[in-house]
Amino acid sequence: MAYDSETADRVRAALGDRQVREVKMFGGLAFMVDDRMVVCVSAGGSDLLVRVSPDSDAEHLKKSGAARAEMGRGRSMGAGWITIDKTALVEEKDFTYWMTAALSFHAQGSGGKPAARQVQAGRSRTGAN
Questions:
Q1: How far are the Cα atoms of 20, 36, 117 from residue 47, in angstroms, in the given order?
Q2: What pLDDT, in 10s, does the model give residues 13-71?
Q3: What pTM, to 2 d.p., does this model score?
Q4: What pLDDT was estimated at residue 124?
Q5: What are the CA-CA distances from residue 102 to residues 34, 56, 98 (Å)?
Q6: How far apart are CA 5 and CA 80, in angstroms?
Q7: DSSP per residue, 25-81
């Protein structure tokens, strides 16, 4: 099944001038910034998959339309992986909430390899400056 093109267009607009790479992933279209996934517009319809800080995971799951992401029925993707039903993204403020949460986590270095995060922080792989 194809991903929702309207939601993909909204994601493109929200990511603005960032260097974005679009990759087919998780059965949908993932939006990569700095080679790390920010969000994915799911195939089959209507969901938006976001990565958020595991520390704020419980708070985000309380939002309407949010659910723990699963990789197949009953196989949780773990803390920080959340799907949002399209019906909960109709209002621009709700869509913006999720994009902001995903971009905030991305800014913390989400999803990068540990060595890559260290180099980005100005440290070498050995920890020396």
A1: 20, 19, 29
A2: 999 888 999 999 877 899 999 889 999 998 765 589 999 999 999 999 999 999 998 87
A3: 0.79
A4: 37
A5: 14, 11, 6
A6: 24
A7: ETTEEEEEETTEEEEEE-BSS--EEEE--GGGHHHHHTSTTEEE-BSSTT-B--TTE
Q: Which two tokens mark 52?
A: 């958020």
Q: Which two tokens stand for residue 81?
A: 């992986």
Structure tokens at 114: 């540990």
Three-class SS state of 118: helix
- Read off the amino acid at residue 59: E
pLDDT in tens, 72-124: 777 888 788 999 998 999 999 999 999 999 999 988 876 555 544 444 444 43
126's tokens: 């050995």
